[in-house]
Design goal:
Elements lengths: L7 H22 L2 H5 L2 E7 L6 H5 L7 E2 H13 L2 E12 L3 E12 L4 E13 L5 E7 L2 H7 L7
Parallel strand pairs: 1-6
Antiparallel strand pairs: 1-2, 3-4, 4-5, 5-6
Amino acid sequence: MPSTPHDPIEQTEAAHLAAVTAIYEAFARGDVPAILARLADDVRWDDWADNSAQRAGVPWLARRTGRDGAAAFFEAASRLRITEFRVLAMMAGARQVAVEVEIAAEVPETGGAYRDQEMHLWTFDAAGQVARLRHYTDTAKHIAAAGHAGGA
């Protein structure tokens, strides 16, 4: 029988892993409201000081804030034709969960496509809600698929 974590840090890590697992399960079902419910009101989505994909205007990697901003990410992502999406591994710490993902997608608007291995870094606030998400990607692949030659 699996043991239950007794250490408060282990309990927090387990709760964060469970939350991120539920987010990916909701993503697979297309259940955006279930994902948004796990986000802080002021969530920061791909909030970077300097990101070449954002400078190039890749819509699904744009900087966004708040639940409405996260919903706009899912609207942009819904225009992709995702042909493969696999979670390869998850690692948890006291405030963050890192997820290794393999993804392949086509961009019907441009005729572009990409295959990437990404890291998604989920950061939680004290209330256990997602306060930030960052996609660590091969931005050159995303820029090319979005139809932006050369990038930024």
